[in-house]
Amino acid sequence: MKWMRRLLFAVALLVAALVAAALLLPRLVDSETLRSMLVIAARTHTGRELTVEGEVHFALLPRPAVVLPRLRLANAEGFGAEPFASLEEARANLRLWPLLRGRLQIASVHIDRPQLRLMMDARGHSNWADLLPQPQPAPPARGASSSGGIMTGLAGRVGIGQLTLREADILWTDQASGRWARLHDLDIALGALDPGGPLPLSASGVIDTGDPQRSAQLELAATAQRAANGTWRAEDLRLDAVLGGAPLREALTLRLTADAGFDPAQTRLRLRRLMLEGDPVQLRGELTLARGDDAVPVLGAQLRLERLDARALATLFGQTLTTADPQALTRIEGDLDIGANTSEINLARIDLAVDDIHWRGTARVSDFSDPALRFALEVDRLDLDRYLPGEPAPAQHAPAVGSEPTPAAPAGSPADALRRLARLDLDGTLNVATLTVRGLSFERVALRARSGDGQMTLQPVSASLYGGSAEASAQVDVRRSEPALRLKLAATDVAAGPLLAALTGKDALQGRIALGGELTGAAATGDALLRSLNGTARLSSSDGVLKGINADRSICQARAVIARTRDKDAEECDPSPDTRFSALRMSGPIAAGVWRSEDLMLEQVRFRPGRFYRITGAGTLDLASSEIDYRLKAASVRRSADGAAQEDAREAPVPLRVRGRPGAFKVEPELKDALRDEAVRRLQEKLGPKPDGARESSGKTMLRGLFGR
Questions:
Q1: Which of 425, 577, 586, 575 is nearest to 508 (CA)?
Q2: Spatial separation of the C-alpha atoms in residues 281 and 331, rounded to whole Å
Q3: pLDDT tens across 423-456, in order?
Q4: C-alpha distances in angstroms, 558 versus 531, 564, 673?
Q5: Can you give the pTM of this predicted structure?
Q6: Do 94 and 178 fall within a single domain?
Q7: Structural domains counted in the chain
Q8: DSSP state of 566
Q9: Are 528 and 668 part of one and the same domain?
Q10: Same domain membership, residue 654 and residue 511
């Protein structure tokens, strides 16, 4: 058992040595010397003073460690007495056996409550500029004793097992703008800091920004690996974020995963197999962030948007999307190619399906301080009626007896939106294969939109409209107190029936029409726009039908009354409820939304072959209410075998008045003058030849008094 006694003796001797070292070593290390070394090192490398509040000491138990007390690094000159950086305590735990063998291995480094204050003053100067490395000329080539050789010699002799930061706090403020941001409650844990091995990383913290308050709770996890060429890669990067504060109505939770790679030599970060998931959105793709010319960050991304619910996203941001279709903007998917830097965002490729509507094209936003938007877009079909606000719901309850009726809410004016849009520097084109707006259907729509300096123009706008073609231009000027609209329109060979059915719900006119006009008015909506219109308009049509109105029958019935006064048989009247015409023309000025025409001319096909009525006159059309009021005169016209037309002198013209709205027109013959003239004629026949003008004058005067004229 002699070997046992020797072993016990050796163990006892080792324990005694360790106890002696634990008691004597801390006393052999001079705290003031360590303090001076720290202060001198800080002054040498930063030019600032380091304050050490307490003793720097070496501890052997429970494990060897170097313990630093509270440290404070002075701020830059002119930025106040608050320290630039500080920490409450730092502890580096050492491994004993490697130390005894000449190798420095740090088991762990713990830093408690480090703080960093980054500031910019009103002149744009920062309190960290003097700490940044200054450009230096390239050093001469060195031999094997260069720093590379030193690092090679240290490789494998120094290692750090774990680095932990607890409750770190970083504050950034800009005195010029009043902006600020704070990263607090930051915890960071790094695994074994072995340059050749994997590096586990986890971090969590909260970012707050100022007025209005915004916040983001972040959690990061990854395992990084350094390659032989100096690049880093983390195949399992995961970032969880909970975003809150204005303008979010409730918290937004997102998760990002990716295969991340970082190249320090080129300052380039690349995320492969990128996936972003949240309640309203899901996308995947690749993203690259690098340093471009003049050290400007440049971003490029190819993204596949797998799901986006814009309605739910707007609700999260406290906005309500009011659309006629409650399911609109809930399904958006497609591809985006994005390039961006500090002054521009470029959507080099847009290929999106928005509610099954296919959008393709490009868009670019530049100069964020005064944004300029450029775009070129194509759409296969677009039903704007789905996305415009629906009709307000009818009142559910009648007002109580004796209570004041609640006034109707005024129609929403687009004035504010137009002012914002007209001040935006915008220039782009839009081509739509099929467009529906307010019930109107257009095909092959092409427009160019421009805005800026308080004006917005759509010019030219061309489209196929119900079998015909239309061209228009519009200009909105918001430099006045009320936005003003200027509109030019020309349309040819348009099917009138579908057009009027879409506008009024009644296809009161059938046939092909041509119309045009130049109008000015208020940039409003609905009746407010129609009642503000001023300008001129013209309309023509051929071989059409006026539905719900039969001028021929009304004229025929009026002639039957006159025929009975002559003791003649009345001709057969047209039984049709409609009016067939071969030509229709009208034009005139528009004032306050009322179109007045002094030159209306309609050639109505009569029931009798070879005959037609030429109806002429003047009247008004109220554009807002569709109410018409025309006083007309129908003259009978014969068409000879050679096609020449001549008024029939044997049939006196019949005066008419046409009033009402589409679907409820009234045609009223005004027979007072016609019956008076017929009575005068018959009286003259009975009186026989007139010896002088006195008796004729007396008879006409008597009849005029009898008929009120």
A1: 577
A2: 10
A3: 889 999 999 999 998 888 999 999 999 998 888 8
A4: 36, 10, 12
A5: 0.72
A6: yes
A7: 4
A8: T
A9: no
A10: no
